[in-house]
Amino acid sequence: MAESAVLPTRFPSLYPLHAMADQLMVDLGTLEESLDDIRRAPADLGTVELIVRRPADEQREVLAQAWLDAESGLGGDLWPTRIPKGMTSPDPEAQLTVANARALAAFAVDRSRWPMAGDQLFVDFDISESNLPPGSRLQVGDAVLEFSAKPHTGCKKFSGRFGLDALEFVSTPIGKELRLRGANCRVVVSGLVRVGDTVRKLPAGASS
Question: Which alpha helices (H) appear in 56-140, and where do they start and end?
């Protein structure tokens, strides 16, 4: 298994950043103006823009590369330790989340704030439901991901970090169809992923 390369940026805790939130939150009108650019994200071949690991609650590590494992998800991430209510093991449908980098650029304002979202892979790619319905597969670097039917939705933490307008933006019917809050996925083929790697939509029924 390849080792993950950690870049210097680390967020020991996200909550001190809330002191900056008011001046960084974007109003709904401005967010809606970003939709055309978000819709222009490539639908077949894209790029990995950022990789983030969550070693513990409210912690983030920005990585140059990471191992995606079919059993444990992103190496060193806390997903294996999270047992949803009513379940006895981690939710395989939410092993990791993929986010559209153009959407993050709209509501996070500064790239340094992208890790606050809590997603692991940020890609310049059209992850909308129309382009990647549940069951669709995406090759990301050497790994292959499968998109889950379980939606990834905004929450209180999200609105605290990016604002109520951002939460409304990602929660509209358009926001849900475009998966502006990101998409739940599972790893079906383990492999190494690096920042700058190609993201490729696979034909239906393909594994790699």
Answer: 101-107
